[in-house]
Amino acid sequence: MSETRTAAAARDSSRIWAASLLAWVWPGLGHLFLGRRGKGLVLMGSILGLFVMGLAMDSRLQLHLGLEDPLALLFSAAQMGIGAPYVLARLVGYQAGLVTSPTYEYGNTFTAVAGLLNILVLLDALDTARGVRGK
Amino acid sequence: MMRSHLLNLLMFSGLVSTVFATLLRDTTRERLRFGLMAFAAFVLSTVVIGWLTNPFPR
Fold first, then answer.
1. Does B48 map to a domain?
2. Which of A58, A113, A119, B50 has its CA 20 to 30 A from that of B8?
3. Is A53 in Cβ contact with B2 (below 8 Å)?
4. Domain total for chain B?
């Protein structure tokens, strides 16, 4: 009996970790993993839409990891919140942006907000996996 | 690309409102209502703040 409970707890724990990781790696994937297909697809479309529009508006995907400029570090962390799309976009050459573009600041805002929203989505997937949220 | 400020505002407001409505409400009807309210709040507050700051260009 206790062995069954331990196995169930381990399975629940793995499910929670998997949902959280998937939610961060790709927007909406955590909800799809948890069987919330409609919610996952809407979140995926909206957040990826924001991110892609940000890139189209010449956003810079900066990578500041030092503490010499804390605001740049926070901004970088916000953009990285979207997970794999950030890495893919940098790999295909979107890291520089175009600072002279009239839409540069719009683009930065779109990509950073997309990352921050994905962090909220991650927390929602975590709550859903733990059974705190129903739908 | 996308040099219209109004279009940028509408797209941003629409997508962010959709995410908030999906996360914060549980039924389709509640989501629709919340999403439309959030969208309207984003757009109206931006227009009002833009209008109020118009005399201070720098």
1. yes
2. A119
3. yes
4. 1
The answer as to whether B4 is a domain residue is: no
Pick the closest to residue B46 from B21, B11, B22 (CA basis): B11
Using the beta-carbon criterion (under 8 Å), do A134 and B16 form an inter-chain contact?
no
User: Is residue A80 within 8 Å of residue A86, measured between CB atoms?
Assistant: yes
Which domain does B56 fall in, by range?
Answer: 16-58
Answer whether residue B6 is part of any domain.
no
List all residues of chain B from 17 to 56 with a beta carbon under 8 Å from chain A. Answer: 18-19, 22-23, 26-27
Indicate if the pLDDT at residue B57 is higher than 70: yes
Q: CB A50 to CB B2 under 8 A?
A: no
Q: At what angle do helices A37-56 and A104-130 cross, to 10 degrees?
A: 160
Q: Please identify which residue in the block is written with the tokens 């260009």.
A: B57
Q: Is A53–B26 a contact, with Cβ atoms under 8 angstroms apart?
A: no
Flag whether B22 is in a domain: yes
Question: Which of the four pLDDT bands, split at 50, 70 and 90, describes residue A1?
Answer: low
What's the mean pLDDT in A107-124? 96
Q: How do residues A53-111 score in pLDDT, each as one tens digit?
A: 999 999 999 888 888 888 989 999 999 999 999 999 999 988 888 888 888 999 999 99
